[in-house]
Amino acid sequence: MVFERDASSHLRLLAGSRAPLRLVQDVDARAQLSEATMARTMEALRDFHAIATSVGATRIVAVATAAMRDATNGGLFAQRVQRELGIRIETIGALAEARYGFLGAVRGLAVSNGLLFDLGGGSMQVTRFARRRLVEAVSLPIGALRLSEKFLESDPPTGRELRRLRDHIQSRLAKARVGRVVSGDRLVGTGGTLRNLAKMDRQTRPYPIGRLHGYELSVDRLGELVDRLAKTREKRRDDIPGLSSERADSIVGGAVAIQTLAEFVRAKHILVSGQGVREGIALRFLKMPVGSPETVKEASLSSLVSRFDGWRPEAASRRRGVAAALQRALEPRAPAGVAMAIDHAARVLDIGRSLDVLNRHEHVASILLSTELNGFAHDELALVSAVVRRAGDRHADVLSVASVRDAFERGLLDRAAIILALADEIEARCPRGSRIAVDCEIGRNVTLSVPLLPSWLAKDLDNRFERVFGRALIIKHHTIVQG
Questions:
Q1: Which of 121, 140, 279, 422 is least enclosed, having the fewest CB within 10 Å?
Q2: Spatial CA neighbour of 408 closest among 382, 372, 444
């Protein structure tokens, strides 16, 4: 992965590639890397190097983990890589791997306390954190590929094999004294196996957000996935939507490991991180701290809007001011999440002008659901997107998660959308360079006095306002008389 720290202090991904190397198969079978595996790894590193230099990377950092730690010829192979490719590989210890995984996985999520697990092919790191700081970490040799190879000999695995596997994992967790989650804790997970499971779960229902970072996988639904996978022959697992073909032979062992851990610590949900060790390494070398979720969220938004030449900071600031004034007057009891959604929507709305002025709401709503915005929960992103989409079209369909569904049922979504649309129309008509003052009087009608506003002919919006708020909207503006 090729990263840069942009002007907003956001960790921005520029390019990436991946290759399944399966080093742990060699290590478990013969305690060392075979010539074929080393050749395959050299080919992948050569390709990665080409991508990095093409993008313009000024520094290349290569890190090896569990399999290279365990391979008797790991050091010799690292020397060969440096000699032939000029890439220095650092084989890091289990604690360093856990620290990098924690830094990368937790920074981009709105979490403060809990347990983080990072499941790879050869090992699982379990880290306890509090106030977004690492407290303690342990590394266990219970990776997805390692477990599948050792315990699941039948295809599909037998009930006896699965019981032995679960007993082994529970024994390892108990011996390592992995503690349970308590009130206020979250179980956070990262790694390709978990992301694959989350993708499979997401495919089973309409879901508005394309990325997996921040997805919540319930332990009950995970159990259903494990049952289905364990009953399916390996060659038929390719037919399961969301499952990567290269994980077909290791997904059952990994899924059982995750399920057993979740049950062991008594978690009901797993918060999926799409980031991990690689991001953690980049954050360290770019000297970027974990920070608070608010700081990370701000950096993500600032980075997003900076990429669009249609975004104007003055217009965004004025629109946010008008929207906040309208929200306080018209929806004073709105939940904090709705008020925040209106503010974020008012801030980013202009990025759509770079794509299509007339249909900018639809484009912005889609961008919010598909781009990488760290620090946001999926509920938050879905609500902001829904507010933007409804502001542009009152009939627009919005795929709901819990926050959107609740706001829709209570009428909050449509009122928030009207507030955003009204703020946008007012800002668009007021001359630049001045702060927009708005005074709101609520009686039988709603009267808005905007001294800076020279005209108002947004009749369709007036009608929408009356339908949603149940009162007629009257706009008092400053009429310029010539002559």
A1: 140
A2: 382
Contact status, residue 235 vs residue 278, Cβ threshold 8 Å: no
Using DSSP's 3-state secondary structure scheme, residue 74 falls into: helix
341, 368 contact by CB (below 8 A): no
Nearest CA to 221 out of 269, 163, 186, 187 is that of 269
pLDDT reported for residue 49: 96
The conformation of residue 189, written as its DSSP 8-state character, comes to E
What are the Cα distances from residue 107, in Å, to 41, 62, 293, 371? 30, 21, 7, 17
Question: Which pairs with CB-CB distance under 8 Å and at least 24 residues apart come from 197-201?
Answer: 197/222, 197/225, 197/251, 197/255, 197/258, 198/272, 199/242, 199/243, 200/225, 200/240, 200/241, 200/242, 200/243, 201/225, 201/242
Q: In the 8-state DSSP scheme, what is residue 245?
A: G
Q: Tell me the whole-structure pTM to 2 decimals.
A: 0.89
- CA-CA distance, 222 to 267, in Å (whole number)? 12
At 89 the pLDDT is 95
Report whether pLDDT(394) > 50. yes
pLDDT over threshold 60, residue 481: no
Q: Are strands 114-119 and 186-190 parallel, antiparallel or unpaired?
A: parallel
| Alpha-carbon distance values, 374 to 293, 337, 377 (Å) | 8, 17, 8
Q: Are 424 and 353 in contact (CB under 8 A)?
A: no
DSSP 20: -
Structure tokens at 423: 């703020």
Start-to-end CA span in the chain (Å) = 65
Which among 121, 118, 41 has a CA at the least distance from the CA of 73? Answer: 41
* pLDDT, position 247: 85
**CA–CA gap between residue 8 and residue 288 (Å, rounded):** 12
Query: Could you give the C-alpha distances from 164 to 161, 256, 307, 344, in angstroms and in order?
Result: 5, 11, 52, 50
CA–CA separation, 10 and 17 (whole Å): 21
Cis peptide before 293 (omega within 30 of 0): no
